[in-house]
């Protein structure tokens, strides 16, 4: 197959590595990609935000499948333009992508589909925010409505900080004040063709910047999969996945279909397992980053087959995706100052030595160069690299990942040292 992947981060690199792992049967193109992706796919020049340009490119080059990685082109309606032209696209159209693009839209769909989620109040003024705080109590959860690259949510006991956060976003529209939910978080991905869904293996993301879940929220500092502790609460991972499929994924997909806006792509359910049961905290309309980096290396079913089936409405003919018994962890290496003010443009060294550690792969999130032979690879963003390690157990995979990280040099870089530490005990 000729596959065009849109995006430039570690998620897209992980998708491309999974497609590559199937063998040499595919020609893989990526726009715009990064320095790591350039080693595994052909970078092409087409603006991922311009639907007409993507459609024209796919047409001209005989692309069989377009895979849209990030949320921005989805919310901008790029999938609609390409799909209308008859080209298979993995990624929802503008309307269904509102599940991620608008927290208020997501709440409405969940209500209509009776999906369990936290109680939330829409507040359009500071007075309404204060009233909602009084009503729901501390800790306070404030969510900006639109896309905010992981920065739109604050969870805090500090009422003043919560109010300041709300006031920052209020000029752009109402915010959601949500009931505080407590329990472990799980990210569960579903492939959807608009009608049928197929679940992938669960993962857990580490959203806070520093060890011990301290510091600001980030796009994600690490992840691991599978989640062995799910079996304690649900009997087995399969039982958990079955419950979420039945109570969350299928009702949402059916609801969107009934509204004439089918969800074709990756439905990401962000869940909290509260003492009262599973609750949805967010949906995303694309693969999670960094969770994808630990889910796809464990996938045994060919990814291209699943993505194409979702894009062409034939997921029903596909088996349930199979996963290896190996575990996977990923640790994100971030630039100095991430997430507030990442320092970019610094050289990265030691990648070959890091990749030489058994079971380790390096996935690039924000890299460029070297432009000249003998030149340096440089960091171009906040989250720079993901070290991914697989192993027979978490202690094993952690040892490999951190050994590899120790071999990478990037001035001022930071990473968490406690990814999958508890589950490894
Ligand atoms: P979101 O962008 O909606 O995933 O929120 C970012 C993070 O905030 C989540 O991963 C949770 O850790 C936390 N969070 C979101 N909603 C709630 C909630 N209702 N109660 C407690 N924590 C929450
Ligand atoms: N890891 C969180 C996200 O992809 O939104």
UniProtKB/TrEMBL annotation:
<dbReference type="InterPro" id="IPR016185">
    <property type="entry name" value="PreATP-grasp_dom_sf"/>
</dbReference>
<dbReference type="InterPro" id="IPR020559">
    <property type="entry name" value="PRibGlycinamide_synth_CS"/>
</dbReference>
<keyword id="KW-0067">ATP-binding</keyword>
<keyword id="KW-0658">Purine biosynthesis</keyword>
<dbReference type="InterPro" id="IPR013815">
    <property type="entry name" value="ATP_grasp_subdomain_1"/>
</dbReference>
<dbReference type="InterPro" id="IPR020562">
    <property type="entry name" value="PRibGlycinamide_synth_N"/>
</dbReference>
<dbReference type="GO" id="GO:0004637">
    <property type="term" value="F:phosphoribosylamine-glycine ligase activity"/>
</dbReference>
<dbReference type="InterPro" id="IPR020560">
    <property type="entry name" value="PRibGlycinamide_synth_C-dom"/>
</dbReference>
<dbReference type="Pfam" id="PF02844">
    <property type="entry name" value="GARS_N"/>
</dbReference>
<dbReference type="InterPro" id="IPR000115">
    <property type="entry name" value="PRibGlycinamide_synth"/>
</dbReference>
<dbReference type="GO" id="GO:0009113">
    <property type="term" value="P:purine nucleobase biosynthetic process"/>
</dbReference>
<dbReference type="InterPro" id="IPR037123">
    <property type="entry name" value="PRibGlycinamide_synth_C_sf"/>
</dbReference>
<dbReference type="Pfam" id="PF02843">
    <property type="entry name" value="GARS_C"/>
</dbReference>
<keyword id="KW-0547">Nucleotide-binding</keyword>
<dbReference type="GO" id="GO:0046872">
    <property type="term" value="F:metal ion binding"/>
</dbReference>
<comment type="similarity">
    <text>Belongs to the GARS family.</text>
</comment>
<keyword id="KW-0436">Ligase</keyword>
<dbReference type="Pfam" id="PF01071">
    <property type="entry name" value="GARS_A"/>
</dbReference>
<dbReference type="InterPro" id="IPR020561">
    <property type="entry name" value="PRibGlycinamid_synth_ATP-grasp"/>
</dbReference>
<dbReference type="InterPro" id="IPR011761">
    <property type="entry name" value="ATP-grasp"/>
</dbReference>
<comment type="pathway">
    <text>Purine metabolism; IMP biosynthesis via de novo pathway; N(1)-(5-phospho-D-ribosyl)glycinamide from 5-phospho-alpha-D-ribose 1-diphosphate: step 2/2.</text>
</comment>
<dbReference type="InterPro" id="IPR011054">
    <property type="entry name" value="Rudment_hybrid_motif"/>
</dbReference>
<protein>
    <recommendedName>
        <fullName>Phosphoribosylamine--glycine ligase</fullName>
        <ecNumber>6.3.4.13</ecNumber>
    </recommendedName>
</protein>
<dbReference type="GO" id="GO:0006189">
    <property type="term" value="P:'de novo' IMP biosynthetic process"/>
</dbReference>
<feature type="domain" description="ATP-grasp">
    <location>
        <begin position="107"/>
        <end position="312"/>
    </location>
</feature>
<dbReference type="GO" id="GO:0005524">
    <property type="term" value="F:ATP binding"/>
</dbReference>
